[in-house]
Amino acid sequence: MNENNHTEQVFHIVGMDCASCATTLEKGVGKLDNIDLASINFSTELLRVQGNVNPEDVVSRVRELGYDVADSAQPAASHQPPATGFLPFMWGRMDTRLALLGAVLVLPGLIFNEFLPMLGWESPVLDVTSVAAMVVAGWPIALSAWRAVKINHEININVLMTIAAIGAVIIGAYTEAGLVMVLFALGEALEGFTGAKARESIRSLMAVAPTSATVLRYCMDCAGHLGQDGYTGGPCPFCGLEEHRVLVEELQMGETIVVKPGERIPMDGRILSGASSVNQAPITGESKLVEKQAGDSVFASSINGEGALEIEITHLAADNTISRLIQMVAEAQERRAPAERFVDQFARYYTPAVVVLAVLVAAVPPIFLEQPFWNTADGQGWLYRALALLVVACPCALVISTPVSIISAISNGARNGVLFKGGAYLEVLSRVKAMAFDKTGTLTEGRPSVARYQSLYCEGGEACEPCNDLLALTSAVERRSSHPLAEAVVHESALRGVNGRYPAAESVQTMTGKGVTGEVNGRRILIGSHSYFDRHIPHDAACAAVAQADAAGYTTMLISDENRYAGYIAVSDKVRASSRTAVTTLKAQGIAPLVMLTGDNQTTADKIAAEVGVTDVQANCLPEDKVTAVTRLRQKYDHVAMIGDGINDAPALATASVGVAIGNTAQAMETADIVLMGDDLRQLPFAVKLSRAAMNTVRANIAMSIGIKLAFLGLVLVGLGSMWLAVLADVGVSLLVTLNGMRLRKRPSSI
Asked: Which homologous superfamily does the CATH classification assign to the domain defined by 449-572?
C-alpha cells in the first residue's frame, strides 16, 4: 500500500482470478463514503482510490469482498513467486484447494451418472458426494455472490453460477450441480494462473536489474591506521579507495563503480576508464554488441563484455533507465485500450440481462406454449434450459480476452526495446495509415559534424585565422545550447583548439526554429538559418558560397556580429543505417504517405529523402509548420503517427494520433506515446507489426468467445446441451483466448 498524495492512494490487491473480480472490487470500494473515484486494473492488480478516505476503511472493504491487500503498491510481478506450475498454484490458496477437493468428490458421480449411465449403477452415495462437491467447491463462489448482492447490489458471474447450481439441486440434477461449481472454480483458478503467467513478463524485466554493485570507497574507521598522524576515524587517508559490495539503493551520484567482464552494469553512468563491448538488448532491444570506451554512456542492466570498466554514476537507482522502463511498462497496463473499455462496459450490462432472459426462458414456454417446466422422461424442461442458459452466458472468456492480449503485447515490446505507454496507443498504432518523420536525430543519426566554415574576412586557405575566430565566436554561444548542431560546432572548435578563445556567451536566447542569440564580450552574436537571414540580415557577399553548401546537401548556419553578416558554418549529418530498411518495410506494410518534415533547406531535404526513400518532403519547417503538416495529414488520413527524437518535436508529437520518439533520453521517454529505446529505426515497423498482431488477436478472441457461446446457447434452447458441458465449454474458451493472447509475449518475432 502506498499513498501517492493527499487525495490518491494505491493498493495492491491479492486474490483476483478474473477481470470480473476487478469489476466487483471497483464497485464495492467505490461505494465507501468520501471516495471520488475507485479504479482497478486486473493486469497490474493495482487499486487506485481518490478522495478523503481512511486507508483502513479501504482495506476493510476489500477484505469484506473476499480479497486482500498486500503491503506494497508494486505490481504483482514484483513480489509474487513465479507461477511455476498449475498444481502448486492451486495448492497455494484455500479456495483453490477446496476446488481440488470438490473435483475428487464429484468424480464418482461424473463417472457413473454422466459417462457410464448404461451400467445402471445408481446409489444415494453418488448424489451425496456430488452435493458435497458443490458445497465444498462452491462455498467461496456463493460467499462472493452474496457479498456482490449485499454490498454492490449487483448480479455478477458468481451470482449466475450459484443460482444455476442451487437450481440444479432443486430439480434433482445433483451431479450437474457439483460439476457446475467444480468446473467453474477450476476455471477461475485457471484464469488466475494464466494471468500470473502473463504478469511474469514484467517480472522478467525486473529480474535483469542488478541489486548490488561494486563501488570504490575509502576504508571507514580503519582499525589498522587509527591514531596515526591524528587519524581518529572516518575515511582512512592511508588506505585509499577500496572495492566495496553494496546495494544499488545505497549508491550516490558521482561515485565510481567497477564492472568486471561478463557482469551486468548496475547503474546508468559514464565510463571513466576501460573499453568493452556492451550488450544493451535488455534496454534497447539491439541484437548487436555496442563498442564502449571512456566518455561513453552506459545503461543499467546492460551486460558488460570482455573489458573491465570504471563508471561514474549519473543517475540514482530509482531514476535510471531500467527503473523508468519498468515503471512505465507497469503504468502502461493501466491505460486501457478502447477495446478493453468496450468489453468491460458490455459485460457490466450483459450479466443482468442474462438473468432476465433466463427468467423468460423458464416462464414463457410453459405458460404460453404449454411446454414442460420440469424435466420429463423424454426431454429437458424449460427450467433446466434456463439454468443451463445462465451457465452458458457466463462472460468470463469475453472479459479476459482483451487484457491478456494487451499486456502480452506491451511486455513483448518492452523486451524488444519498444515501450508502449498504454494499450490505447497500441490500438491506435495498429490503425495508422500515414507517418511523418523529423529528420535530424530520427532519419539521421543526430550527430552532425562541421563540414566547412568561412568567415566574411576569410584570408584563403584552410582554417585561416578569421575563419577560426568565427568558429570560436560561434562556439561561445553554442556552448549554452543542447541542439545537435550546437554540439557539432563546439566539438569542432575543440578540435581546432579555439574553444577557449572567448568566454561562454551571456543572455543566450533560443528563437524556436530560427536560431540562437547571445552576448560575447558585449557583442550581440546571432546564429540563424539561411531563410531567417534572407528576411532580416543582408548577406549578399556570401550568397554564392552558402548556396553551394546547400546544393552539396549540407545544413548551413549563418552568423551575424552586431546585426552584420560575419560568415557561415556548414554541417552534415549521416543517415541512419536502419532508416532506408525501416522505410521500405513500412511501405510494404501499406503505410503511405511517409513524410519527412525538416527545418533544412529544400536541397538538403531532397538529398536525405532520396537516400531514405520517403514519399514526401516538407522543408524549411518551423515547429509550428510541423504541427500544421501533421494536422493536415490527420484531416486526410485520420490516424497519423509522428516520429521524432523527443527533444524539439513535442508539439508535433502531441498533435499526431500517436507520437513515437526514438532514443532513450529522458525527454523521449516523457514526451512520446511510444518510445523506440534503441537507435535502430527498424523497431518502428516491428512496433506496427506487433500492434496489428495484438488487435487481430483481440478481435479473434472476442469473436471466438461470442461465437462459441452462441453455438452452445442454441444447443441449450433446443434441449441438446447440459449444464456441465456449458461450464466446460466456458472454461475451455477462457483457456483458449488466454493462451492465444499470451502468444503475443513472443510473437511476432523481433527485428
From this structure: Calcium-transporting ATPase, cytoplasmic domain N (3.40.1110.10)
